[in-house]
Design a protein that fits this description.
203 residues; alpha+beta; 7 strands; elongated
Amino acid sequence: MSTEEVEAERAADTVESDATDGPAAPAEGEAPAAARPKQRRMRDMAMSMAVLLVPIGLFYAGWQWVASDRQVSVVDTTENHATAASLGLAAIEPELGEEWKAISTDLAVDGETVVLRTGYYSPDGHGLQLAETNGALADVNEALTGTGTPVEAAGITWAAYETNAGETWTAEIGGETVVLSAEPDGVPDLTELAEGVAEAAAA
């Protein structure tokens, strides 16, 4: 046999061996090995997060829209103010913008002591109250004791008290006790209410 024939026979044996060799088939009764899961790509992860965040974002946007468009019931304070004035109370009606809404009114008379309360809804959507009396501070709020913290607003020195319900300012104006109260979020609006009270009292 020539050298060329020997080399050709070896090459044929090599090809046949490569064709028959391969991964061993699983033994009878043995389950095939589980395929390794593919790693999730960053795009897939981002899409999954978007599916979760979109409903949350829609809910938040809807809540903001509802909160900014809240409707309030405006009350007529004329009768209580007129009655309080007939009893000798100044019945201050603060000089406020049209966006301020009167939402509650209450007049209490105990002997010669008159207490007039008016609740307001500020332009920022917060609740505040103006109370005035010809009696003592305790006739408005018995929890307000001590001297409070001095606060200057509209040329008047108010005594500020922090309470569980927010913050309260008190001052004596024209011989009467005036009390301004605000819920926690409405504290920044106290200054505007105080200015409106001062302007009305000076008129």
